[in-house]
Amino acid sequence: MPDLHHGHAGELVAPFFMNALESYGVEKRLGYVTADNASANDILCRAIEESLSSRHGIDWNARQNRLRCLGHVLNIAVQAFLFCRNEEAFGMATQRILNSGSVIRDAVVGEGGFASHGPLNKVYRLAVAVRNLALHKEFKDLAGKVLKLPGETRWNAWYTLLADAIECRDAIARMIDRHVQLEAFKRSRDEWQTLQDASGFLQPFYQVTMLSQGDQATFDSFQVQIDFLIKHYEDSERRFTSKAALLAAFNKYYELSDDVPVHAAAVLLHPGYRKAYMDKVWKRCWIKPGIERAKKLFETRYRQSAMKSPASDAVEQNGAQTAWDFHRNRLLQSLTSQSQDGFTAFINATPTKIAGSPIEWWSQPDQKAAYPQLWQMAIDCLSAVPMSAASESSFSGMRRTITWSRSQLGGQVIEEGECLKDWQCRGYACQIDDGYDSDSSSNEDSLAPVEGWI
């Protein structure tokens, strides 16, 4: 874990990223890079593209392989709903974020969105008020929990605050009745209904966020879940004026996906979706370009790298040919090429219901034999990570390790500590003798299993 003494700009991080790839010997196997929407990550990917080309002769297209974290897209979209009154306010806030690096909540100009006024704002101010030492225990005894204050960067905590307030509605009413200083936070029946409606509107966004951050999530979920959330937006009642800001945020990043063929490819190569999904969900004008992008990816990256067909070899070996031989060999070569393609045949076939992961389905020997050129593309596309939750979690974990009293810890010590924590979570550390003594000669045997993991 290197120390970045000069900042986190993309061009400064790229050399360390390349050193990590080369130290593990995986520079030729780099696939998709999933990161948040910061422009520094765009610069990082372009620098990686240049380094791979100049140092290793590897053609890695940054524009096609740079993926945007679904969690960050959802975070920006829902923050736009919470803190931007309309699409214009979202545009102004976005520009301020680009200029200052702040979050939407702090970048809003003028009157904000749903969380900035009305019932949810009352809930927030009540949560602040009952953190008072005199009221905290009383509210916890009444409600069985406390109302947690949301942070500045993640929207999920606002949904949690909203859901907890609805659950603790009776306890909140009793607290307000007991304490006159809380009278300003009293809500009418209509305001409670507004909170219920907002909770129902935000719940799918929360669920999608939770589903997409696990190890089992495959990249097809990115497109399918975005499509679902847009339909959910369109089907919901038009009672929140700030919903337009949410859609503006979605559209901003939806358009960027046009440059990345893996979005369409992952859906087309999911055995349970294929082209039938697009026919049912997508607009007609989107389908053909999406398929063409995925087909081009297949043609340029996977089909060209396949071995030549037996028919082609026969043509070269025979040398001089009669007209019949030439016609026959060309026909066999064409038919073999079509059968090895498989892309069009697969996406147009009837979707297959599968019990497990689509990656497991494609990893079966039968699928590899049936689609000798297509299976590797399918695994590459589906195994792309829809969210950068794992790296974000590691970053947050390290921040908890580096307390103010440990601010002088170096990169190597932090790396070793995080490694040990990971071993402990996976159960590896349990294999080390609890009675470990640094002066004991028997420690060499007890650490033998660990050396195999390094």
Observed structural traits:
4 domains; single chain; 26 helices; mainly alpha; 454 residues
Q: What can you see in these coordinates?
A:
The protein has 454 residues and is an all-alpha fold. It folds into four domains: 10-68, no CATH class; 71-258, no CATH class; 260-382, no CATH class; 412-453, no CATH class. The protein is built from 26 helices and two strands. A two-stranded parallel sheet has the order 1-2. The longest helix is centred in the middle third of the chain and has 24 residues, at 189-212. It is globular and about 100 Å long. Keywords: Metal-binding, Nucleus, Zinc, Zinc-finger. GO terms for molecular function: protein dimerization activity; zinc ion binding. This is HAT C-terminal dimerisation domain-containing protein. Pfam families: Dimer_Tnp_hAT (PF05699).
Write the layout of secondary structure elements.
Layout: H1 10-24, E1 33-35, H2 39-56, H3 62-65, E2 66-68, H4 70-83, H5 87-100, H6 104-107, H7 118-129, H8 133-143, H9 156-167, H10 169-178, H11 189-212, H12 220-235, H13 243-256, H14 262-268, H15 274-281, H16 284-303, H17 310-318, H18 323-341, H19 343-348, H20 358-363, H21 365-370, H22 374-382, H23 389-401, H24 411-426, H25 443-446, H26 448-453
Parallel strand pairs: 1-2
Helix pairs in contact: 1-2, 4-11, 4-13, 5-13, 8-10, 9-11, 11-12, 12-14, 14-16, 17-18
Low-confidence stretches: 96-111, 307-318, 446-454
Share of helix among residues? 55-70%
How would you sum up the global shape? globular
- Give the domain tally: 4
What order do the helices and strands follow? Answer: HEHHEHHHHHHHHHHHHHHHHHHHHHHH
Instruction: Please give the alpha-carbon distance between the first and last residues.
Output: 15 Å
Number of strands: 2
**Separate helix tally:** 26
Helix/strand class: mainly alpha
Within the largest sheet, what's the order of strands? 1-2
